[in-house]
């Protein structure tokens, strides 16, 4: 499965392709001002995004889902929004929850969606999910951190925030990520 940079269109300079044409990651796609939020969402939709995976907590930022539906209607396109919150600066309370997040990404891709995963700044929680995704798809934890660093160098805000994820705890989660056993049916 190819990871990495792509010549495919990005909505802005603070997003990156994890899996070109299928999985993109970055910062919060909304905005505090309604018109700016709609403009930004249009740019994501024009980049092909059809599934927004929101890692922010309810009430943390202004919800953009209503604007998303309005822009989709204006453009005649369909997109989904799914919130799976992780505490800012933190990690999930258990590994099963991360497994659920990764399942959402893989299932959306399998269903033909182009996924955009984001938190607020696109650094901590987003980097954590992307790193665990890379491990799930064949890299070691150290390789995933190296690939994440390479991808991050292409993002404009890497000039002021040079690493992703944000915390040592998040890095250690990626470094030691192992899928928990699935419950027997």
Can you characterise this structure?
The chain is of the alpha/beta class and 185 residues long. The chain has a single domain (15-175), classed as Alpha-Beta Complex (Protein-Tyrosine Phosphatase, Chain A). Helices cover 39% and strands 11% of the residues. The chain is built from six helices and five strands; from the N terminus they run E-E-H-E-H-E-H-E-H-H-H. The protein has helices at 34-46, 65-75, 95-110, 124-136, 141-152, 168-175; strands spanning 15-19, 23-26, 51-54, 80-83, 115-118. Strands 1-2-5-3-4 form a five-stranded mixed β-sheet, with helices on one face. The longest helix is centred in the middle third of the chain and has 16 residues, at 95-110. It is globular, with a radius of gyration of 15 Å. The chain starts with 14 loop residues before the first strand and ends in a 10-residue tail after the last helix. The mean pLDDT is 94.
Question: What's the short story on this structure?
Answer:
The protein is built from six helices and five strands. The protein has 185 residues and is of the alpha/beta class.
Sum up the structure in keywords:
globular; alpha/beta; 39% helix; Protein-Tyrosine Phosphatase, Chain A; 185 residues; five-stranded mixed sheet
